[in-house]
Prior knowledge:
Elements: H1 12-22, E1 25-33, E2 44-52, H2 60-71, H3 88-99, H4 101-113, H5 117-129, H6 145-148, H7 152-163, E3 168-170, E4 179-181, E5 195-197, E6 202-203, H8 206-212, H9 228-237, H10 240-254, H11 264-270, H12 272-280, H13 286-293
Helix pairs in contact: 2-12, 8-9, 12-13
Amino acid sequence: DSVGDSEDPGSNMSAMIDIIEQKGYSAIWQVIDCSEYFLPQSRRRMYIVCVKIGLQDDHFGERWFAAMEVCKGQALPMDCMLLADGDTCLENELARRRTLFAELRSAEATLEKGGVKWISEHMKVAESLGVSWPFAVPPSLAGNEWFSLRPQRERESLIMGTFNNEVSRDSSQSCHRARGTFGPILGTMMPSQHTWLYQHQRPLLGREALSFQGYPWPKLVAVDAFSDAQLGDLAGNAFASTAYMAVLMSMMAAWKPLPKAECPEVVAAFDLFRVLDSVSGNADDADDVGSDVD
Length: 294
């Protein structure tokens, strides 16, 4: 993602492709956002497929883009990824945080005595907004136990999110660096994030973050053996689609069309390239491809 989308001469991407070709490989690349592939989070990543020159025909790149287009789908509603209100996992996590209340407050008091940097930063933000500091708690957050159990720095960041009518906010950073979202797509899942869901008035749990990354956490073995923070870090570091795309790329790079005479049953069922040729409009024998798809 950080490489950028540009193929202009002199760009990072152009230089990288030149080096790959000098090594004897042809390369195709695409920046893919998982929000276009059913998952309601924005996560842009670049995928590059390198194939030894001469091993694939001239239509290989078109097949790849056709495959990615076929796989696209509208992002699912966020609620599909979230636990239902009153779920045992929510109750257990809230109970765990209650037991840490005194410890959190003690640590917070120690930080405040040290004159930590975030206080001056928040005061500057308040001044720029023309509001008093510390920020007044809005009615939507007043009396919310999840909210009250967060350190003051995070509580103030969450209050600022209400100024902008945000849908979610990662309060792990100070208020001027916090990442907020405004639509039905969450921001990129990151390790150590503290994402607050304003419509649900609670934080996103680690196991829910796994769902946004494409992992069906209820099917994961021993998921309850890990803390919510550990599951959240796992979600920030592991992305199911990364592995899926890598496998798909490897298959496409190595998979050639098979002569129909060798094994017609296998070809009819699994000749992916012939099917993708029909999608990308490169089929020389459209009638045969249609019969294969059927």
